[in-house]
Structure formats: C-alpha cells, structure tokens
Design a protein that fits this description.
single chain
Length: about 70
C-alpha cells in the first residue's frame, strides 16, 4: 500500500509542464522563428567570422615585453 502524498499537485503547473515538454511536437517555422533562426545560425556566426578575419594578424603577442606595442607594423 502506498504512503499518502503530502505534496499538492497544481493542475495549471502540470499543464504548463506538459506544454513545455511537448513544444517540439508543435513547432512551425513562422516569420518570427525564421528570423530568430537566421540570426542565430547565419548572422551571428557571420559577424564573428568577419571580426576575426579583420583582426587576424593585427596583434602580435609573441616575444613582447612590457611597454612594447602589440600592433604589428
């Protein structure tokens, strides 16, 4: 025989948890989700790549001492 539970279950919280767990089953590409996907998968990595390619070989940390400039000439 099971022991009585002292935990009260709130049906609204249970519905919210069920909705959150099943969100992937009801996903659709809408204009908003497409925009978010483009930002996260194309624009953000593209911006990081652009910044990295612009600053590549601009700074030289090898063999520098205190007071010497890091910028390469």
């Amino acid at each position: 025989m099971a022991a009585p539970s002292f935990l009260k279950i709130d049906p609204a919280i249970e519905r919210w948890n069920r909705m959150r767990e099943d969100a992937y089953k009801h996903f659709r590409f809408t204009p908003r989700t497409t925009r978010v996907a483009m930002y996260g998968l194309v624009l953000f990595p593209g911006a990081i790549y652009y910044l990295a390619s612009q600053t590549h070989l601009t700074w030289s940390w090898a063999g520098k001492q205190k007071g010497e400039a890091l910028a390469q000439s």
